Every structure is written in C-alpha cells, then in structure tokens.
Amino acid sequence: MTKPIRRAGVIGAGVMGSGIAAHLANAGIEVLLLDIVPPNLTDAEKKDPAARSRFAAGGLEKALKARPAAFFHPSNARLVRTGNTEDHFAELAQCDLVIEAIIEKMEPKRALFARLEEVLRPDAVVASNTSGLRIEEMMQGRSADFRKRFLVMHFFNPVRYMKLLELVVGPDTDPAVVARVRKLGEDVLGKGLVFGKDTPNFVGNRIGTHAMLTAIHLMIEDGLAPEDVDAITGIAMAHPKSASFRTGDIVGLDTFAHVADNCYSALERDEDRDVFKVPAYIRKMIEAKLLGDKTKGGFYRKA
Ligand code: NAD
Predict the structure, then answer these.
(1) Of 35, 47, 81, 85, which one is least surrounded by beta carbons within 10 A?
(2) Where does the record place the 3-hydroxyacyl-CoA dehydrogenase C-terminal domain (predicted)?
(3) Which residue's CA is the nearest one to ligand 1's atom 34?
C-alpha cells in the first residue's frame, strides 16, 4: 500500500505554484505555500509578518480569482497557509511532499534543493515543476538518499483545467516514490499521467516551445498579427482556449524565454537548437514588462 500524501509544501507562488496549491487544497490536502520575502520592503514592513509573506498571499489571491472561473472553491482556501522562505522554511519538515515551482533557472533551483535536504523528513517526496531542466543537473551536489525521492511533476497551465501531468523520473528515483506520486496524480488530483524522459524540455515543452517560437517567427517574418496566427492555431485547429499567442500570455513571456533559453543551451547540434533562439522582439517585450496575463498584458492587452 502506498502512503497517502496529506500535507504538501509548494515553493514559488507565481502562476504555477499558486495554481498547484489551489488544486491540492481542492483535493483536501493541506498546503504550505511559500515565496521569497519581497525585496525593497521598508524597515517597518521588514518586521511585519503579513508584508514578509505578501508574495505568497498575493499568489493565492490571484489563484482564487483566476479566470475563466475560480480555480477552486474559496472555502478550500483555509487549507492553504501562506508564508515565506526565510521565516517558514523549517515548517516544511511536516510535509509528505514538497513541490518546487520557482523561477526556471538552474542555480536558484539547486540552492533550494540543498536547503530542502537539510529540513525535510527522510520519507518526504520532492518534486520539481520545471518545464524542462534536466534532473541530472538539478541533482548535482545532492545525496543518494535525496535523489531517490526526487522526480519531476510537470503540471500544465492552468493547473485546474489541464488534465495532463508529465512525470519524469531520474535514474535514482525509487519506484515506491513513483508509485506514491502516481496514486496522488491519478486518484487524488484527477490527472492523466504521461511519463517523459529526462531530456531538454522533456516532451511537452520540447514540442510546445517549438510550436510557440514557430508562431512568433511567422508573425515577425510574414508581418502577421497575433490575431491572424491565433485564428488558425485556435478554434480552427480545435484548440479554442490554447491558440499560440493566447497561450504565450497565459504562460508568461519571462518564463517562456527561460524555458526556450534552457533548451537552446542544452541542445548541441545547431539544427536541433536554432528554433529555440528567442527573437529580440520577445526580449524587448520582457524588458517592457509585457509578460502576459500576470502583468498588464503581453501579446494581448489584459481583459
Ligand atoms: P512565475 O514567474 O509566475 O512565479 C515564480 C515565483 O517563484 C515568483 O512568485 C517568485 O517570487 C518565486 N521565486 C523565485 N525564486 C524563488 C526562490 N528562490 N524561493 C521561493 N520563491 C521563489 O513562474 P511560473 O510560471 O509559476 O513558473 C514556475 C515554474 O513552473 C518554472 O519552473 C516554470 O518553468 C514551471 N512551469 C511554468 C508553466 C507556465 O505555463 N507558466 C507551466 C509549467 C511549468
């Protein structure tokens, strides 16, 4: 019999972490949702617990209000406690599972796993929601024991609606850990599980990022508007809610660029990686904070 997951920690309360926390709570799991202490707090705010945990609280609030419908029933919000990674990290010791959903960069993720190794119970499972960083690299410096209970749980956005959960297992992941996560994913969270390989961007994003960048190149080179491309890749292709540029705005252009950059640098042959080169046009949008739905808009103005 696999041991059920009753308490989970989610680290990173952005688009994905808040959605994952909401989905877990909806399934009756207690969640501790942590984000960093916001930089640039005033001296008074530095002593204020609410201000120190503002990022996590804000992420949860966004998940509660998320469109097209609320991510989960507001009364389930009581199952989620919010906090920050300076004051509440030790509380992760009470969790059966911790899901990492922070920025898609190798170094911050590695630093976080090193901290988790210090505090977690020996039987706690650790998962990364990375879009495509390799397990082998994320686990550099971690013990054999930590590697046994680590795997990738790649949720898709929006977590509440997307049925797919891509699981990627490392060479050292314990089959009992996989069985535990599989039960959670299928029986408790209602996801359809697919196993990917530990390759750059796995399957979901190797294809998804390629398709998105192809749409961007077509828009720029052929002088098309996002609406023109979306009219073809959306309803006409039976994807009413996931046309190319609509999806880009939901994902977030900063995250999208990190995912594409990581894939570009992980692939060795020019013919494999050239399509993952992010155009200057997208870098300018990111500089202008046109990141998509999480800001004032991206390809589309926020509704
Ligand atoms: P996001 O930018 O919306 O949120 C990231 C959050 O992590 C922010 O709130 C940030 O303050 C926090 N953070 C950054 N460094 C931290 C640290 N060291 N400790 C704690 N919190 C930290 O990003 P997102 O879109 O939610 O992506 C999170 C992860 O999920 C990434 O690995 C991304 O590749 C992956 N992912 C994203 C999508 C998507 O559609 N956006 C889909 C699947 C997977």
Answers:
(1) 47
(2) 202-301
(3) 131
156 closest CA partner among 136, 183, 185, 126: 185
Ligand 1 binding pocket includes 256 (Cβ within 6 Å):
no
The Cα–Cα gap between 237 and 244 comes to: 11
Residue of the nearest CA to atom 12 in ligand 1?
A: 12
Compute the distance from residue 35 Cα to the ligand 1 centre, in Å. 10
DSSP letter for each residue of 56-97: HHHHHHHHHH-SSS-SS-GGGGGGEEEEETTTSGGGGGG-SE
CATH superfamily, region 7-196: NAD(P)-binding Rossmann-like Domain (3.40.50.720)
The ligand 1 atom nearest the CA atom of 254? 2
Mean of all residue pLDDT scores within the chain: 94
pLDDT in tens, 34-86: 999 999 999 999 999 999 999 999 999 988 887 656 667 878 889 999 999 99
Q: What mean pLDDT is predicted for residues 285-297?
A: 95
Q: Phi and psi at residue 269, in whole multiples of 5°?
A: -90, 135
- The pTM assigned to this predicted structure is 0.95
**Residue 18 Cβ < 6 Å to ligand 1:** no
Tokens linked to 71: 């991510």
- What is the per-residue pLDDT across 18-27, written as a single tens digit (0 to 9) for each? 999 999 999 9
